[in-house]
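Q: I'm building a small set of examples for a reading group on sequence design. Run inverse folding on the following structure and report the sequence directly after it, with nothing in between.
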């Protein structure tokens, strides 16, 4: 069962504190400032996610490749090798683009010297710093 609550409902609920709680001095004041900090952190995270969603497809592909590379490092694998187990259809769906667009973007990354195809049908990250720069460009 999914629960749906709008932002305005959350804000109304947050600001409709009973008078008993609003009269407390130190603890309530601290809770309110903590709530404001939480609100600011939430708003900053929402802006970050929104910006990430608005990235260009090439930046999203670069960001995905960087994320896979970091995961490979974490798991003790070569950070410059993207396994061929990831299908183009899966990656395209993950990025919200079609397979033809993904192929075009990978060719563009290859022309820029950031990636290279390998004999095992995998992908080699030839310029990880360049990919990271592209992924952070927004």
């Amino acid at each position: 069962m999914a629960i749906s609550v709008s932002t305005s409902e959350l804000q109304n609920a947050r600001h409709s504190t009973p008078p008993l709680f609003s009269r407390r001095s130190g603890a309530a004041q601290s809770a309110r400032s903590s709530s404001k900090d939480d609100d600011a952190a939430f708003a900053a995270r929402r802006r970050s996610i929104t910006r990430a969603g608005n990235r260009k497809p090439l930046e999203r592909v670069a960001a995905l490749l960087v994320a896979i590379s970091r995961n490979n490092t974490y798991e003790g694998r070569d950070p410059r090798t993207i396994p061929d187990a990831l299908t183009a259809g899966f990656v395209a769906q993950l990025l919200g683009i079609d397979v033809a667009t993904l192929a075009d973007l990978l060719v563009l990354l290859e022309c820029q010297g950031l990636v290279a195809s390998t004999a095992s049908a995998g992908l080699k990250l030839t310029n990880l710093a360049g990919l990271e720069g592209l992924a952070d460009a927004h």
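The helical segments are 7-15, 19-22, 26-53, 57-74, 88-95, 99-111, 128-136.
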